């Protein structure tokens, strides 16, 4: 697997820096991009990690399903796939997020789309920071960290 799927070319000895958002097969633009970037960085620092680069790719169900089958061998729809390229505390990775899944999840959970998209973004970031969700205990810890991060976003001045 390449060091990154989209965006930056592989340049030996050079690592891109920052957070970038891309869109594949969807008509969607993330609102409050600067606030979301600041929030992601604050969350990463909270877990004593250092972000080098993060690409968040918003895509269609079809696009993400294809990645899920091709790279993970999972024949299912999902809302997010995280591809880490380093181990914590270094953060380098790609998050692929299905806008269709997030919209459906928001509707079925009766939560605003804005909150659900942020939850899914931070879910992927928390994976990059070393938080798992494979066991019931890990899943509970993941949910608590997601809620803590969402509280930070909405009460910490990021959403203004």
List its salient traits.
160 residues, alpha/beta, Collagenase (Catalytic Domain), four-stranded mixed beta sheet, 5 helices, 4 strands, 46% helix, disordered N terminus
Structure description:
- This protein has 160 residues and is an alpha/beta fold.
- It has one domain: Collagenase (Catalytic Domain) (3-Layer(aba) Sandwich), CATH 3.40.390.30.
- The chain is built from five helices and four strands; from the N terminus they run E-H-E-H-E-E-H-H-H.
- A four-stranded mixed β-sheet has the order 1-2-4-3, sandwiched between helices.
- It is globular.
Reconstruct the topology from this structure.
Layout: E1 18-24, H1 33-46, E2 50-59, H2 61-72, E3 80-84, E4 90-98, H3 99-109, H4 113-128, H5 136-155
Parallel strand pairs: 1-2, 2-4
Antiparallel strand pairs: 3-4
Tally the structural domains.
Answer: 1
Task: State the helical fraction.
Answer: 40-55%
Query: Based on DSSP secondary structure assignment, what is the total number of beta strands?
Result: 4
Report the C-alpha radius of gyration, rounded.
Answer: 15 Å
SSE order, one letter for each helix or strand: EHEHEEHHH
> Can you list the strand order of the major beta sheet?
1-2-4-3
| Tertiary shape | globular
CATH architecture label:
3-Layer(aba) Sandwich
């Amino acid at each position: 697997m390449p060091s990154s799927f989209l965006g930056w070319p592989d340049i030996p000895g050079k690592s891109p820096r920052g957070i970038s958002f891309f869109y594949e097969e969807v008509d969607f633009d993330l609102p409050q991009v600067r606030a979301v970037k600041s929030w992601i960085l604050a969350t990463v620092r909270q877990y004593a990690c250092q972000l080098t680069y993060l690409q968040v790719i918003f895509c269609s169900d079809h696009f993400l399903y294809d990645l899920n089958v091709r790279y993970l061998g999972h024949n299912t729809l999902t809302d997010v796939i995280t591809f880490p390229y380093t181990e914590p505390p270094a953060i380098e990775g790609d998050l692929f997020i299905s806008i269709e899944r997030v919209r459906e999840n928001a509707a079925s959970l009766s939560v605003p789309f804005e909150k659900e998209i942020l939850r899914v973004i931070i879910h992927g970031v928390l994976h990059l920071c070393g938080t798992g969700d494979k066991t019931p205990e890990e899943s509970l810890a993941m949910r608590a960290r997601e809620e803590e991060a969402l509280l930070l976003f909405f009460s910490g001045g990021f959403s203004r």
